[in-house]
Write a structure and sequence with these properties.
The complex is a heterodimer of chains A (200) and B (330). In chain A, 81% of the residues lie in helices and 0% in strands. Chain A is globular. With 200 residues, chain A is mostly helical. In chain A, helix 1 (7-33) packs antiparallel against helix 2, helix 2 (41-70) packs antiparallel against helix 8 and helix 6 packs across helix 7. The two termini of chain A are 35 Å apart. Chain B has 330 residues and is an alpha+beta fold. Chain B has helices spanning 12-15, 18-22, 24-36, 42-54, 78-81, 96-100, 124-129, 157-164, 185-188, 206-210, 262-266, 314-317; strands at residues 110-115, 118-123, 134-141, 146-156, 172-177, 201-205, 215-220, 223-224, 234-236, 249-255, 290-293, 303-306. In chain B, the strands form 2 sheets. In chain B, strands 3, 4, 7, 8, 9, 11 and 12 form a 7-stranded mixed sheet that branches. The chains are: A mainly alpha (200), B alpha+beta (330). Chain A binds chain B through residues 29, 31-43, 45, 96, 100-103, 105, 108, 111-112, 115-116, 118, 168-169, 171-173, 175, and chain B through 1-4, 80, 83-85, 88, 92, 94-95, 144, 146, 191, 194-196, 266, 282, 285-287, 289-290, 292, 294, 296-302, 304.
């Protein structure tokens, strides 16, 4: 299979990604505001944005292996966009917790981040993703040189932390977190050479 | 995702007669049998109609009861109280119990209250008739740090226990939820039920069980309980975390030894036997100092309030735990 993506195809797919991911971000917020998101809209929206971020993170990590496997190199063109949406969902997730769960009690928020290990590692993961998002421009990439790749390799650490954060946050049902953890492991194993290189 | 049909401004259940609406599946099944079988006798039709009229478990019946005094706490909307439930027997996600409990049958029901070989059995009708029903507007604090204010209808558990006339051996009370995998999908499906070893078991010390605030509820908001809230009879202990208030009870045993309870067995470091609401003892993974009060309204209409010791019932119950280390006995 040697399919070539044209520029117009890329624009079309990117537009679809925007519409889809914006809809799944904005619509639940709308429903949560008008109280149509179940009994506890705060929990629902926090969970939704968190799961969205995790899903998008895994999809982002799956892009380059998929591009290599399918030999459609240009699929990599969607990686940054999806990564930035992962960040947008993660940001919404953190803001939901800050604004609606603890209702802007900053001191309590900091206390929770420090005291609760599962929130601490979630926050570390968020800070990594934040720094990746901030340095995602072409300009930053050129300016930072070698450092850029080193920084962006932290995505793997962030993904592992997010998976643990999810596993730790559930009460009993560990099936879903285990499935996510397995998918992540596969994505990391595919990159075992590269990851070995990072260590050296 | 469920959404209201706003253009019509009424729910499906309001248009259709509630009995027909709730029993629609079994009615359709019956129609199917009647429609396809050429061997219908009059008696089989009569029988199926009989079942239809006798078997209307999920229609919430109006109750007559003594009203409680309206307090200062704003009530949770009925819609939220009956659609946001922790009842893992019907699925471990909050919206699942309301959706997956439609086939649950509460008639016939037997609640057995016993000590050794002495027992009292209550039928479904006994549950509603044996004692004068009274409304109790209680705060319900979930261990997950959300809370509701619910007008329960029921009777003090002490009245029932007194009927059995417990011996001096009885020190603890063990409660058990019905085990009915055929009607409780969470009991037959490991993933749906969260991997709990069913049946669900809870327990109280006898003095806690005899406390006037402890009730067996048979209804809420003026009507009998829907299955997702623990029909036909559940415990309500307002100063303890919600998981102590066991639902759909079939067995109450007075025993001499402290019973082993479900959540405590699953994670004893997170869920203690006493489980008294206590803002000073955090759950290992989250704070118990605050709670989000679910009343009604969306994410911009949330009430975050300080959690009170014993859920605000300290004046009534603190004496039960005098001299006890509540940090150890969480």
């Amino acid at each position: 299979m040697n399919y070539k993506l044209k520029q117009s195809d890329i624009i079309f797919v990117k537009t679809c990604i925007h519409i889809l991911l914006l809809y799944f971000l904005v619509n639940p917020f709308y429903l949560a505001i008008i109280d149509e998101l179940g009994g506890d809209p705060v929990k629902a929206i926090t969970h939704h944005t968190g799961m969205g971020a995790l899903n998008l993170l895994l999809i982002t990590l799956a892009i380059s292996p998929f591009a290599a496997w399918s030999k459609i190199k240009k699929i990599n063109k969607f990686r940054r966009l999806l990564g930035l949406y992962a960040f947008a969902y993660a940001l919404s997730h953190v803001l939901c917790f800050l604004l609606f769960e603890v209702q802007f009690d900053i001191l309590f928020f900091i206390e929770e981040v420090v005291l609760r290990p599962y929130i601490s590692i979630g926050m570390v993961a968020f800070l990594i993703i934040l720094s990746l998002a901030l340095s995602s421009t072409n300009y930053a990439r050129i300016k930072m040189g070698n450092l850029w790749q080193k920084l962006h390799n932290l995505i793997y650490l962030a993904a592992i932390l997010v998976a643990i954060h999810f596993f730790w946050s559930v009460k009993l049902n560990v099936v879903e977190p285990i499935i996510y953890g397995t998918v992540l492991m596969i994505l990391l194993i595919i990159r075992r050479r590269k990851l070995g290189g990072i260590r050296r | 995702m469920k959404r209201k049909v706003s253009s019509y401004n009424c729910k499906e259940s309001e248009v259709t007669d509630e009995t027909l609406f709730i029993n629609r599946r079994s009615i359709i099944k019956q129609l199917g049998i009647l429609g396809s079988s050429p061997f219908i006798t009059n008696s089989s039709i009569a029988k199926s109609q009989d079942q239809k009229t006798n078997n209307q478990p999920n229609v919430r019946q109006l109750l007559s009861y003594k009203r409680d005094v309206i307090g200062t706490d704003e009530l949770t909307s009925e819609n939220k109280a009956i659609s946001h439930n922790n009842f893992y027997e019907f699925g471990s996600q909050k919206h699942q119990p309301a959706e997956l409990s439609r086939d649950f049958k509460v008639k016939p029901w037997t609640l057995s209250v016993n000590e050794g070989d002495r027992s009292i059995n209550l039928s479904y009708d006994d549950l509603l008739d044996m004692f004068d029903l009274e409304e109790r507007i209680y705060r319900l604090r979930c261990v997950e740090a959300w809370s509701m204010v619910i007008p329960w209808i029921g009777f003090p558990l002490s009245k029932l226990i007194e009927k059995l006339n417990p011996s001096s051996e009885a020190k603890w009370v063990r409660f058990q939820t019905i085990y009915k995998p055929s009607q409780m999908p969470g009991q037959r499906n490991y993933f749906l039920g969260g991997g709990i070893d069913y049946p669900y078991v809870e327990g109280l010390r006898l003095d806690e069980a005899m406390h006037p605030l402890t009730i067996l509820a048979v209804g809420l908001y003026g009507k009998t309980l829907p299955p997702q809230n623990g029909a036909p009879v559940r415990l309500v202990v307002p100063w303890k975390y919600g998981f102590k208030s066991i639902k759909s009870i079939v067995d109450i045993n007075l025993v001499s030894k402290k019973p082993r309870t479900t959540w405590n067995l699953l994670a004893s470091n997170e869920y203690g036997f006493y489980a008294n609401v206590n803002p000073e003892v955090d759950h290992p993974r989250w704070s118990q100092a605050y709670e989000r009060r679910i009343t009604s309204g969306g994410i911009f209409n949330q009430k975050r309030i300080k959690t009170l010791p014993f859920n605000g019932y300290a004046d009534e119950v603190a004496h039960l735990y005098k001299g006890m280390n509540l940090k150890k006995n969480y």
